[in-house]
Design goal:
single chain, 152 residues, alpha+beta, 3-stranded antiparallel beta sheet, 8 strands, 21% strand, rod-shaped
Length: 152
């Protein structure tokens, strides 16, 4: 009798363990993959809007194929090591203030004209770009010979 109870108990334990194992492993699972960390960006800023932006990348480190038949299989060609690229630091690189051109010369006192002297200022274009202040020179005096005879 004790042997019979022991066999029944062992059978019950085996059935219980198999049932728990079956519940722990999903029967239907979609295609899953794990990505590694993103790399550093290839540049701190973009040279111009005409250039491609800097890029960062990451790669697939593990793939878990779909199981059970209700989910689509993993895409064809998907494999460990597949690389994904993404833009980063897409802003245009700053432009130094000293790189901006000067305007034409203007009279200091317009109604006096050339005798009052003249000056020119930095020509700051309306750009979507930061400006690095590398100079405090926003205007400068013009030579008398560069002053126009009259202002239009």
């Amino acid at each position: 009798m004790l042997l019979f109870l022991t066999i029944i108990l062992l059978f019950g334990i085996v059935v219980y363990v198999k049932r728990q194992a079956a519940l722990a492993v999903p029967k239907h699972m979609p295609c899953l993959f794990e990505w590694g960390e993103w790399s550093e960006c290839s540049s701190t800023c973009r040279r111009s809007t005409k250039n491609d932006p800097p890029m960062m990348r990451r790669h697939i480190t593990r793939i878990f194929n779909a199981t059970g038949g209700i989910y689509a299989p993993c895409p064809v060609g998907l494999k460990v090591g597949y690389i994904q690229h993404a833009p980063c630091n897409v802003q245009i690189c700053p432009k130094k203030l000293s790189r901006f051109n000067w305007t034409e010369c203007f009279y200091r006192i317009p109604h006096i004209g050339k005798r009052s002297g003249c000056y020119k200022v930095r020509r700051l274009e309306p750009i979507d770009q930061l400006i690095t202040i590398d100079s405090t020179s926003l205007y400068k005096e013009c030579k008398k010979k560069d002053c126009p005879e009259f202002m239009p």
